Amino acid sequence: MSTIVRTLRNLRRIGFKEYGHQMQYIGDTKAGTLIGTDRYGNKYFENMEEELPLRTRWVDYKEKEYDPSQLEPGWHAWISYLVDAPPTADKLMQTGHRNWELPEHRPNLTLSRAAFKTYSTTRPKYSAWEPVAAPR
């Protein structure tokens, strides 16, 4: 199917507002059925009529500056094709919030000032030479 035909078909299905939103944040237009929403507000979609394999599931993040760590583990398994049933249909994944989980999302801090930095607690085997100039 040509790109123009696919674009016009998706524009007719999802409307101008959603078309603009997807082009700005996803970079592609997709039309499908809403499978579920997680506790962070991300929406998960699926379209089994898609012509390319492994491109039938996608997520629409709530935040404009999204981070893949905002996916819950059950939804990550579903969107990565590790499981067939979404967490809304799986009894084990419907347990909700667990006691050991953080109450709110903590973002991935890699490449930021708050990222973890290693340091050494051992003394170096040698020290740098610091020249001392004798007075004249």
Automatic annotation (TrEMBL):
The keyword Transport applies. The keyword Electron transport applies. It is found in: Mitochondrion inner membrane. GO terms for cellular component: mitochondrial inner membrane; respiratory chain complex I. Pfam families: NDUFA12. Signal peptide: none annotated. Its main location: mitochondrion. InterPro entries: NDUFA12. Keywords: Electron transport, Membrane, Mitochondrion, Mitochondrion inner membrane, Respiratory chain, Transport, Ubiquinone. It is a peripheral membrane protein. One of its GO terms (biological process) is response to oxidative stress. Belongs to the complex I NDUFA12 subunit family. PANTHER family: NADH DEHYDROGENASE [UBIQUINONE] 1 ALPHA SUBCOMPLEX SUBUNIT 12, NADH-UBIQUINONE OXIDOREDUCTASE SUBUNIT B17.2. Accessory subunit of the mitochondrial membrane respiratory chain NADH dehydrogenase (Complex I), that is believed not to be involved in catalysis. Complex I functions in the transfer of electrons from NADH to the respiratory chain. The immediate electron acceptor for the enzyme is believed to be ubiquinone. This is NADH dehydrogenase [ubiquinone] 1 alpha subcomplex subunit. It comes from Aspergillus steynii IBT 23096.
